[in-house]
Amino acid sequence: MNKYGRQSGPRYSASANRAKAPATQQCQKCLEFGHYTYECTAERVYTARPSRTQQLKKPIKRIEVEVPEEFLPKRKGLAAKILKDKEDERKKKKSRKSSRSSVDGHLSMHIRIIVEQRKQQEQQERQQVIIQLVRIVAFSLQIWISL
């Protein structure tokens, strides 16, 4: 008896407990058939297998199956309508983007013209301010000289 109050050892005889492995059972240690791995007495057999890197470099063969139209799910109802609306919106956006490039070119030309006009106006305003300052200085000099 052990410390838990149970008997130790097998309940039945060892030969009666072991069942014979089926002939289709392959041992994972020696790779032979007819016995379990824990019963194996042979040496471990080395099998060369490809590394994970080699497996990942190997392309995956994809099988593409064409499904006839009659077997494809037929879309009906609200969800199908929403999906169709979204697809239509995407198509419209794509068509807008292609036409938008010419519009963007025209807009950028107009913007450049407006920016240049504003620069010219600012330059003219600066010149006018300078002229007014020169007049004020000249007038003040005249007054100072007359005193």
Tell me what the structure shows:
This is Zinc knuckle-domain-containing protein. One of its GO terms (molecular function) is zinc ion binding. InterPro entries: ZCCHC10 (IPR039715), Znf_CCHC_sf (IPR036875). Residues 1-23, 82-105 are annotated as: Disordered. This protein is mainly alpha-helical and 147 residues long. Among the domains are: 8-46, no CATH class; 103-147. Helices cover 54% and strands 0% of the residues. It is elongated and about 135 Å long. The termini are far apart. The relative contact order is 0.03.
Key phrases:
mainly alpha, elongated, 54% helix, Znf_CCHC_sf, 0% strand, 147 residues
Order of helices and strands: HHH
Overall mean pLDDT score?
80
How large a portion of the residues is in β-strands, by DSSP E? under 5%
Secondary structure: helix percent: 40-55%
Summarize the structure.
The chain is mainly α. The chain is built from three helices and no strands.
Helices and strands, with pairings:
Layout: H1 14-17, H2 52-57, H3 78-146
